[in-house]
Amino acid sequence: MRAVFFIGLVSMFTIACPPEPVRYQKARPQAEPAPIPGLEEMIAEHAPEPCVLRFWEDGDTPAVTCGPEGETVVVRMLGIDTAESGFDDNSRRRGARQADLWGMSLEQVFACGKAATRLARQLCPQGSAVDVIGTERGKYGRRLAYVVCKGINLNQRLVDEGLAGRYPYPGPPEKPAACPLKKR
């Protein structure tokens, strides 16, 4: 009897006092992403490590060999994000998120990503000497760094060419300025 009374009382209270509506905070305007540091500023923070470029996985992700043991490491270029090129399932999933975020079709994202990778390969071909500046590792184990090849700060150059947006992590990355690419 007590249990029935208690359940009735709880039910009546629940019906009489509906839960507060969920209030979502308005998204705060994102602060302007910090500029990509100049060479002198980067070197003041971390000593450059001489490496050799092995290959470009994507426009912002080179694989390099560094150190006396010749360990090959995947680098995630700091402060920028290029569009995905769709080279594997993971890249295609990330490309779909970029398409939603940037209001582009998946085909436009992949075309822009392939253009970014093409430019990176032109500026810094396989076998090139590079300086990798930065020692931290990201959540996927990649080295987070700036990459300098032939005196060119590749992070900045990709942004300057419009094929990378600045990425104020953990905020969302900017859409690369040249994307979607104009038809020729």
List keywords for this structure.
184 residues, alpha+beta, OB fold (Dihydrolipoamide Acetyltransferase, E2P), five-stranded mixed beta barrel, globular, disordered N terminus
Radius of gyration: 23 Å
CATH first level: which class?
A: Mainly Beta
Strand content: 15-25%
Oligomeric state of this protein: single chain
H and E order: HHEEEEHHEEEHE
Largest sheet: 5 strands, mixed, barrel
Shape: globular
User: Quick check: average pLDDT?
Assistant: 85
Q: What is the CATH architecture descriptor?
A: Beta Barrel
Number of helices: 5
Unreliable runs: 3-29
Could you give a short description of this structure?
With 184 residues, this protein is of the alpha+beta class.
Please, could you describe this protein's structure?
The chain is of the alpha+beta class and 184 residues long. The protein has a single domain (36-166), classed as Beta Barrel (OB fold (Dihydrolipoamide Acetyltransferase, E2P)), CATH 2.40.50. 33% of the residues lie in helices and 23% in strands. The protein has 5 helices and 8 strands; from the N terminus they run ααββββααβββαβ. The chain has helices at residues 2-16, 39-45, 89-102, 106-123, 154-160, and strands at residues 49-58, 61-66, 71-77, 80-82, 129-133, 143-149, 152-153, 164-166. The strands form 2 sheets. It has a 5-stranded mixed barrel. Strands 4-8 form a two-stranded antiparallel sheet. A hairpin with a 4-residue loop joins strand 2 (61-66) and strand 3 (71-77). Helix 3 crosses helix 4 (106-123). The protein is globular, with a radius of gyration of 23 Å. The chain starts with a helix and ends in an 18-residue tail after the last strand. Residues 3-29 have low confidence and may be disordered.
